[in-house]
């Protein structure tokens, strides 16, 4: 807990502390602890006692406020937005002068800031600690306070969905949900959280695909549905998914399955285009991918979809020659984040040619499984034909499934669309499947997947071997 951490720092005589948070009012409520008197300063009100609105001294100048702290003992001054004044030489000098005295009189300056933004002159003087966002219990208490006032039952699932919001954001979302729906809706909370993604400008929201629109891939669906149990109440002991890599032939439904995963879990879907995060400015690409992963961590339960990941991280070894190591640095951060980050997000990465990815990307511990998405079996082709007929109003006979052997789901969809103009037979005659155009490459991909990936499709039944009996005419 941050209060205990802060108390230990104060006991040890730490004179300057930076608390990273955007919740200045929440920090003021959580930080005060016994044996020290806490005061709050901002450049509009001046100095007041923490937890009250009564102004004790109308000191608005940051230098005077810092010097004010030196007049007391066992006192802590919480300075809001002091980081905005750290380019002023007098402020820097006041902090440098103050830390020498504060160590001996039990005082400390706590700077509340959303970012680490310090000059070299003082960055070694400050100890940085994070104020974590509200946890499940805090969000439930906040929701309970609002629901009690209007005699509505709380929704613990909505409280968990609000994880990643500040207390003010969560309170606003709960209140808006109560006004618009009459209860705390997880959907409204998710819409409120979408603002995090929109404001970042680094990712985009996508509408999850309906699982009914995914024909076949029963093994993959069962894998995800089975592990979705880890997110149900009472199953916190079960390990949670980190991510899945879908490898396969183009047009076989890898992207659609990634989008449908969000539908299975009932989570929002975010598309992260790592290639678009690259910038020509030195260090900016690395900063942007760090910001993107931080937003995902704060968002909580979400499916993150990465399309054709091999195109982003291909050529890592030659990155230093081509882009001064930018791609390699982004790759390193991404791998560390996938493996070490304590996030509820699930990564769904698709690849057409996994051989272009470095081996460290797919090793155990980073992704939970690598699935190979093959061309649809006959039963899957029947399912896809039914889905496309329903979707487009086409009239492809299910008996066409026999003739569509070697056709991908995307090609069957194209057949459905073309048949509305040209008729089924003519559309079929004009469509050349990728399995024929790139026969050698697809055979090689299938051979690679035999012992290296899980099959996403249900295996097609092979015809049983039967004894052949040849009748010989009786010539007698």
Give a written overview of the molecule.
- With 476 residues, this protein is an alpha/beta fold.
- It folds into four domains: 2-130, 3-Layer(aba) Sandwich (Rossmann fold); 136-200; 205-373, P-loop containing nucleotide triphosphate hydrolases (Rossmann fold, 3-Layer(aba) Sandwich), CATH 3.40.50.300; 378-455, Helicase, Ruva Protein, domain 3 (Orthogonal Bundle).
- Helix content is 44%, strand content 13%.
- The chain contains 20 helices and 14 strands.
- The strands form two sheets. Strands 4-3-2-5-6-1-7 form a seven-stranded mixed beta sheet, with helices on both faces.
- Helix 11 links the parallel strand 10 (269-271) and strand 11.
- The longest helix is centred in the N-terminal third of the chain and has 17 residues, at 89-105.
Short structural summary:
Belongs to the AAA ATPase family. Highly divergent. With 476 residues, this protein is α/β, with parallel strands linked by helices.
Topology:
Blueprint: H1 2-11, E1 16-20, H2 24-30, E2 37-42, E3 46-49, E4 55-57, H3 62-69, E5 75-80, H4 89-105, E6 108-113, E7 127-130, H5 136-149, H6 156-161, H7 167-181, H8 186-200, E8 204-206, H9 218-227, E9 243-248, H10 254-265, E10 269-271, H11 284-299, E11 303-306, H12 309-313, H13 319-323, H14 326-340, E12 346-351, H15 359-362, E13 369-373, H16 378-392, H17 409-422, H18 424-430, H19 434-437, H20 439-449, E14 454-455
Helix pairs in contact: 3-4, 5-7, 8-11, 9-10, 11-14, 16-17, 17-18
Region (Disordered): 453-476
Keywords: ATP-binding, Nucleotide-binding
Family: Belongs to the AAA ATPase family. Highly divergent.
